[in-house]
Amino acid sequence: MSATDPLAVGVLGYRFMGKAHSNALARLPMFFPDAPAVERHTLIGRQEEPLREAADRFGFERVATDWEDVVDEVDAFYNLGPNFVHAEPSIAALEAGTHVFCEKPLAPTLEEAEAMRDAAAESDALAGCAFNYRFVPAIRYAKRLVDDGDLGEIRHVRGRYLQDWLVDPGAPWSWRNDEELAGSGALGDLGAHTIDLARFLVGERTGEIREVSGHLETFVDERPVEGEDDSRPVTVDDAYAALVEFESGAMGNFEASRFADGHKNDHTIEINGSDGSLKFSLERLNELEYKGPDQRGYETILVTDESDPYVDHWWPPGHVLGWEHTFVHENYEFLSSIAAGSDFAPSFEDGYRVQRVLDAVERSDERGERVSLA
Ligand code: SOE
After folding, report:
1. Of ligand 1's atoms, which has the minimum distance to the CA of residue 193?
2. How many alpha carbons lie under 13 Å from residue 306 in its C-beta half-sphere?
3. Contact (Cβ atoms closer than 8 angstroms) between residue 162 and residue 135
4. Contact predicate 355/106, CB 8 Å
5. Positive or negative torsion for Cα 224, 225, 231, 235
6. Which of 163, 190, 257, 285 to mutate to test the pocket of ligand 1 (most atoms within 8 A of CB)?
7. How far is the CA of 296 from the centre of ligand 1 (A)?
8. Which residues share a beta bridge with 301?
9. Chain segment 124-138, per-residue pLDDT in tens
10. What's this model's pTM, rounded to 2 decimal places?
11. Does domain 134-321+348-372 have CATH number 2.40.10.340?
12. CATH tag for 7-133 (out of 3.30.1050.10, 3.30.300.180, 3.40.50.720, 3.30.365.10)
């Protein structure tokens, strides 16, 4: 690929994440003109007809029904498929020297995540894990406060991710309900985000999570199969809760649920330090609540000034951003890292370290005791 040729991107998956990332690629030239030029080269999926329809809508030149025909034909391979297809195609792409951007969680199991981490370490290509909430301007602002020491020593991290799309026992079965296909339920789908955000925001001051006490629960153990007169078992958690200890002695309290009736996509994180605190909620993602040492209580900061991360690419102050913009930001950073030959975070090492915590929560639940990650 010459310096001026567009980056040819192959994308596996054309449903929810395929749409989010394709939208992001389409918006880069207008809002991030210094981003590398990208050709939406091939869209990969199993069913030809819906695949072609999606390719037309998402602006892809070609379609393929076998990822093996694509991973060594493009400059970057986006693995946006279900968790059970993350490992093999991503490892094959890295072995072919193709850059890989893989959706979270890295894999269904720790073993597969380790193999992906090792393949990335052995490859000259770049590998990133798409934890998109690191790319919210308010989260970047929060990290700056923590890194600048404005919160002092970190004492508590409190993270939760609440949804309610499975409260109805009649909600259909999907791959997200199956241990073989997903690995875990709310723990890996939602908890992975919160654990990654905690590592991103405080990890440089607290070190890694070193001990875990976890609990998983499945409230509805079988669900109807859409369009069939059949049901399938739910073999993963509907909710998890975990108490963790960081290397620094800081305490973490994490939970996620798909049964939190009234919560649609309520991802929140709160950090308490010796000199101050901050709170973030995805449902108010343009705002950060901050309490510094000289304040009696929290103040709400609207993180939409042109000096705030990424905001100058969009609109004037107060013209708020949304969930989809986080995908534009992460794509900008990943593709710019490819063009610059620089590192990208979150890496597959980051994805693997999140997977270690998820695995420890599951082991702790199985054993009914605290588990060390030392
Ligand atoms: C689950 O419904 C889900 O789509 C997660 O898989 C995503 O990672 C999260 O960003 C939104 O909710």
Report:
1. 8
2. 5
3. no
4. yes
5. negative
6. 190
7. 36
8. 288
9. 999 999 999 999 999
10. 0.97
11. no
12. 3.40.50.720
